[in-house]
Amino acid sequence: MTEYIQSIVKAVKGKRFNLQDEKELQTQIHWCLSGLTIPVNKEHNLNAKNIPDFFFPDQGIAVEVKIKGSARLIYAQCERYAGFTEVKGIILITNRSMGFPAEINGKPAYFIKLGTAWL
Which of 60, 26, 54, 58 has its CA nearest to residue 41? Predict the structure, then answer.
């Protein structure tokens, strides 16, 4: 799984994206992720109320994109996703300044801060 996660992080990290509109940001990130040789689903339903923005079914990696909301609510959303058995790891992509643990519910968690590309 680490190889997959590194590929995902490399596809996104350091790129300058539109940080004003979350749907546009998701479209731009989807374009980057589509360039990988890894199958990716957009807006994957874990259930009716838990829908990560992207999901890599071969490895069970959920990706959530956030540009608004409190750090506490963003973390709670990621924690919910990590509670599903089909999720084996989670990546948060955000412009928010916040801490993020290396594991959530015993699953690897990764953090990509988009704002650093603009520095």
Answer: 54
